[in-house]
């Protein structure tokens, strides 16, 4: 096992604690179209995905609609303004020990990049609320807007590697709170894939993607890296 030189961390539910507000908003804009999907269904079928894709996949899996494409487009058009209003009133914080963990890794020369199924504007609004800055707290941010293919395709991880000058994917660790994060890491041939239990999906759900480790939170990440000699 090569040393890990880059950790790519999902945002909502992994590094950012925003009480699943994004997926509650996905649930709202879908149900505003006359459906009755649960938050659990939204998390099961939409977690970690670019949000238009998430809405489409939830509609496919949880409704009998015969006009999914147009309904998904209408719901997504409502998603951004609805989320913007919610975010303006939302307290955003990180999970205990996560900022210290990132600082510790960066002090040892490990790059830390956040990646997300959010669009760039939404992701930047979260960083602003947290007071995090690229170059100071993280080494980069990759959003759904920055790549052609979203999760589970590996494009965002490859973009993160390019930002940090990493050429070997075995030197990359990917961590997230949903199976699609793990699938993304495996599709990029990352050296380690990590599931965390602070967000969208539970241990049973995460195990279906076969991560190398499942942790209670990212705060435990240095222990895994110490075991692996990183």
TrEMBL record:
Protein name: Phosphonoacetaldehyde hydrolase
The keyword Lyase is annotated on this UniProt entry: no
Keyword Ion transport part of the UniProt annotation: no
Keywords: Hydrolase
Top-rank taxon, per record: Bacteria
One Gene Ontology cellular component annotation held by this UniProt entry: cytosol
Any one GO BP annotation for this protein: DNA repair
One Pfam family recorded for the sequence: HAD_2
GO molecular function (one): phosphoglycolate phosphatase activity
């Amino acid at each position: 096992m090569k040393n890990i030189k880059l950790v790519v961390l999902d945002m909502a539910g992994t590094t950012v604690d925003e009480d699943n507000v994004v997926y509650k908003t996905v649930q709202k804009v879908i149900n505003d179209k006359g459906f009755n999907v649960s938050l659990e269904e939204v998390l099961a079928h939409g977690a970690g995905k670019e949000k238009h894709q998430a809405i489409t996949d939830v509609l496919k899996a949880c409704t009998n609609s015969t006009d999914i494409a147009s309904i998904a487009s209408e719901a997504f058009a409502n998603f951004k303004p609805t989320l913007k209003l919610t975010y303006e009133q939302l307290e955003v914080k990180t999970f205990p020990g996560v900022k210290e963990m990132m600082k510790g890794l960066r002090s040892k020369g490990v790059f830390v990049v956040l990646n997300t199924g959010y669009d760039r504007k939404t992701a930047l609004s979260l960083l602003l609320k947290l007071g995090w800055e690229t170059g100071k707290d993280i080494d980069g941010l990759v959003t759904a807007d920055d790549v052609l293919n979203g999760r589970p395709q590996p494009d965002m991880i490859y973009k993160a590697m390019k930002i940090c000058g990493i050429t070997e994917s075995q030197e990359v660790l990917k961590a997230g709170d949903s199976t699609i994060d793990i699938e993304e890491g495996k599709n990029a041939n990352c050296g380690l894939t990590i599931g965390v239990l602070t967000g969208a999906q539970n241990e049973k759900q995460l195990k279906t993607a076969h991560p190398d480790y499942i942790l209670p939170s990212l705060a435990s990440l240095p222990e895994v890296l110490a075991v692996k000699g990183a």
